[in-house]
Amino acid sequence: MQQKTRLPVIWLHFQECTCCSESFIRSSHPMVADILLDQISLDYTETLMAASGFQAEEAMKNTMTKYKGEYILCVEGSVPTDADGVYCMIGGKTSLQILEEAAEGAKAIIAWGSCASNGCVQAAKPNPTSATPIHKLVHGKPVIKVPGCPPIGEVMAGVIVHVVTFGKIPELDGMGRPKAFYSKRVHDTCYRRPYYDAGLYVESFDDENAKKGYCLYKVGCKGPSTYNACGVTKWNNGTSFPIQSGHGCFGCSEANFWDNGRIYERA
Ligand code: SF4
Ligand code: SF4
Ligand code: F3S
């Protein structure tokens, strides 16, 4: 029986908190183990690979040479461009140098999370390191943005499986996000929406309306201006999402959400 070659993947980490990786490894449908063992060959990732140091660097170099034009480059984190990039260096290279080298032979690039897609908290004012999202630094390659802080694990897995299955990137919206997961606002699929439409709101987190599960708009929910799949796909194997646990959406998948308005104030 002929063995199908797994899609080579290089996964870089720059200015980030690693929760995008944490989210990805919790995907249950599809199971992340199935993706890692059957669909892709995760040749380089600082957080999950067994190798370290020179061996790890060698693995990345081998993939870049052997699979030039074929591998997928995943990036978690933003790139600091201030002070010649010294704020984030790995193996003696700046993150910008590493990104440029790895992007050159990549078939496509996936920008994981709000850090890589929009800059996230590192880029919040005054953005002391000039944290920059990936699409502003890489040119001539398709960049798939998968925003969220972190993105939903099943969404991340779904994007990878789409690329493996169809051999091309998923259909993107005007901002570079996969339409399948980012075409609706959290507000459009929120189960509390009937309360919003009826004008029934939580006024403070401990009031009677909160106990009744009314709409969280007046306590800062940004669901009406946030595009993400949380209301449908949910988190933790489809168990819940922020609004279901009683907290408004704070817009973690939107650009500049740290600067766009305070978390507990109405948008
Ligand atoms: Fe962490 Fe959020 Fe950045 Fe992902 S997007 S690495 S969860 S700070
Ligand atoms: Fe919309 Fe938020 Fe109210 Fe849900 S809780 S209906 S997302 S404003
Ligand atoms: Fe983020 Fe809002 Fe979903 S805060 S996790 S986009 S409900």
Automatic annotation (TrEMBL):
Its cofactor is [4Fe-4S] cluster. Residues 17-162 form the NADH:ubiquinone oxidoreductase-like 20kDa subunit domain. Keywords: 4Fe-4S, Cell membrane, Iron, Iron-sulfur, Membrane, Metal-binding, Oxidoreductase, Signal. Residues 182-263 form the Cytochrome-c3 hydrogenase C-terminal domain. The keyword Cell membrane applies. It comes from the Bacteria. It is found in: Cell membrane. Heterodimer of a large and a small subunit. Belongs to the [NiFe]/[NiFeSe] hydrogenase small subunit family. This is Hydrogenase. The chain holds residues 50 to 316 of 375 of the full protein.
